Amino acid sequence: MGTSELASDSGVPQVSGFTARTQVAAPASVLPPIRLADGTVEALKWLALVLMTLDHVDKYLLHEAARPLFDLGRLALPLFGLVLAYNLARYGALERGVYARLAGRLAVVAAIAELPFIALGGLAWGWYPFNILVALLIATSIIWCLDAGGPWRITLAVVLFIVGGALVEFWWHGLAMCVAAWFYCRRPSWWALAIWIGATAALYMINGNLWALAAFPIIFYAPHSICRIPRIRWAFYAYYPTHLAAIWVLSMWIGRR
User: Fold this and answer.
1) 0.85 surpassed by pTM
2) Is residue 215 one of the residues assigned to a domain?
3) DSSP strand E in the chain: where?
4) pLDDT tens-digit profile of 54-80?
5) Per 3-state DSSP, what percentage of the chain is helix, strand, and coil (rounded to 5)?
6) In this structure, which of 27, 53, 56, 178 has its CB flanked by the most CB atoms within 10 Å?
7) CB under 8 Å to 133, separation ≥6 — which residues?
């Protein structure tokens, strides 16, 4: 669940190795803004990757026997959603073509990842729902339409939300969470925060717990932390399908022992 744009393919000015913090719109309220150093964005992305991997190990190799891994795994999507939203909220993302590049990469890698994702099993009708990269792709497309503006684009965003939410992991809740996080990163507001938290809490309907909300202390502490983690451009694109394939191979090997 991120991308190169998730990792920070933004083309914004760099200051001492970190993204210039003026690149995210200034807050319009007393709510705390989210302004992250590039290394901190990378740290959040890798934390989410680790949590996602632990969750998949529990699900596919341990057959959901390690409840703590499942609970910790609930934090992965909110963290991925924040990283996606933050990078799309950077100044000039629309003009620089960030949306098109990100959507194209997500589409390609999501299609590749569907092979091991389906092979691992546990899906309705053998294929439903689509993997999390498809959810991030749809969220990106919705935000793209909202950022571009105009009646027909807003209508398209609504259609994408309604139809796409029925097809992907974490349903409409996950999409709403990403979109609300984008609104908040652009201009902090109480309504955006309420929808963001509400959509995250609504993941209870899927997760069966409220552990996803535990991501918020991390998210709002992150602006106060400067991590010096270098960006590896294609890391997430390679990691997501590769780790699914590796887990599938391990599950087949364990099953034959």
Assistant:
1) yes
2) yes
3) 14-15, 18-19
4) 999 999 999 999 999 999 999 999 999
5) 65, 5, 30
6) 178
7) 1, 106, 109, 110, 113, 240
